[in-house]
Specification:
With 181 residues, the protein is mostly helical. The chain is built from eight helices and no strands.
Length: 181
């Protein structure tokens, strides 16, 4: 194990014992990543903020169930994903549009050297993602944006690896269909 992994493992052990400063440190490390992920899944800044907070509340409430010998990142993304799916289930039956509602993009905005075409393409992809089925959107974001492996996504979403691969393929196909002009 490298030093960073050892430090995270120790931090997790302290959180499991109820250390508030260690929990605050974990939140500081992962909060932006989880927010960015949820924002892309939900397409709504307010919901992403609320669910980010809810994810970390669940993290603390379930801290004793964290296995320090397994990937904490996968476990945390599973909590965030399940929290988002809970929201989708609550809203099922209510027609709601998941559109990108923050023109300032709170995450990784293109730098000033980016061309207008690149920014427009990124916007098109972001908007197209909001039109995908939540399962496809989730696997694509976890794989391409968050950099999780097939195995980590399978663990995060509690799916077989082949289902993850299939969902990524189908998600890319659906995204391609949406982006055709």
């Amino acid at each position: 194990m490298d030093r960073e992994a050892d430090n995270e493992r120790e931090l997790i052990m302290r959180v499991k014992r109820g250390s508030i400063p260690a929990f605050e440190r974990l939140v500081k490390i992962y909060e932006r990543r989880i927010f960015n992920y949820l924002y892309r899944v939900l397409g709504n800044r307010t919901d992403a903020e609320d669910l980010t907070q809810e994810t970390f509340i669940k993290l603390y409430a379930n801290r004793r169930s964290i296995d320090p010998d397994k990937s904490f990142r996968s476990w945390l993304y599973r909590v965030a994903t399940n929290t988002a799916y809970d929201l989708f289930r609550k809203r099922k039956g209510r027609r709601e549009s998941f559109i990108i509602d923050d023109p300032e993009r709170p995450y990784e905005t293109p730098d000033s050297s980016s061309s207008y075409d690149t920014m427009e393409t990124a916007k098109d992809v972001e908007q197209a993602l909001t039109r995908l089925k939540p399962t496809y959107r989730t696997v694509l974001l976890l794989f391409y944006k968050e950099g999780l492996s097939y195995e980590e996504i399978a663990g995060t979403m509690n799916l077989p690896i082949n289902t993850v691969k299939t969902n990524i393929r189908r998600g890319k196909q659906a995204l391609g269909e949406i982006l055709k002009y």
